[in-house]
Amino acid sequence: MKETKYQGSCHCGAVRFEIEAPLTLEVEDCNCSICTKAGFLHLILPLSKFTLLQGEEQLENYTFNTGVARHTFCKTCGIKPFYTPRSNPDGIDINARCLDTEAESLSIVKFDGQDWEANAQRLSHKSKVV
Known about the structure:
130 residues; mainly beta; 7-stranded mixed sheet; 3-stranded antiparallel sheet; 10 strands
């Protein structure tokens, strides 16, 4: 599968990152409470495919429930461009809506996060290097 580099950022541009991902992206649209309110489209990748380019000092974390997921947001504009997901704590979850580089195509798959425990295993392979 051919991959390319994508650039991304928060709204104010204080946090900038780069990822390596396929030309054609498949992302999850989760219906859990936090993802619905934030409008997050999940692109889960191995951590090795992610580089923080600037803004580490601008990042704050929010955790709830089990505390495994670390929801990372810019303390200036409040946007959450990426986070450490509970389903893949060894990976990174990019908000596809924060990518500044457009993919050749984007496929959105519904994910039932309201019943997370029963469905999380569908995501566990996404942070593995292939």
